[in-house]
Write a structure and sequence with these properties.
By secondary structure, the chain is mostly helical. It has a two-stranded antiparallel ribbon. The protein is built from eight helices and two strands. It is globular, with a radius of gyration of 17 Å.
Amino acid sequence: MFLAIMIILAVTPLGFIPIGPINATTMHIPVIIASIVLGPKIGAGLGGIFGIISLARSTVIITPMSFVFSPFIANPLTGQGDWRAIIVAIIPRILIGVIPYFVFVGVQRLFKSKTLPVSLFIAGLAGSMTNTVLVMNLIYLFFRDSYATVTQVAADAVYGVILGIIFGSGLVEAIVAGIATAAVCAVLLKLMKK
């Protein structure tokens, strides 16, 4: 079911929403929910699939930033693909399927299971921020100069732009993911108990 939802999101405009040179995404929400409801192994597997979808999409639907997610798209500075794009596309997405589970369990233990909606919201927030923070920092680590060229900013101003994305659209994505996670997981966890 979660995989089907991810495929629907991937092939419609609902999964990747263009905002300037980057795409806001809702693809991570099913991964976060699966992580909490079905556990970190299944969550990590779905996260890996999300990463592969992201890589494939960046290879087929070419945008100015496709080179950071696909090793098959030429980096504007080197003129060739870079294998590190695989790390950017896949590793953070796998972790989206792992971290929310442990955040949820940790918050539940901390508050002695009395705050299910809050625990779910925080786990959703953590899962989304895992994606945004890791992807944007890996882009900075591996592709700073190329990112500066594409976005037409000075290389020493790139991290400021990245922080703007993390605390701008990334925070909005995280709040949406937290709300969706709390709403959907509350229902699914009750159904699973029955």
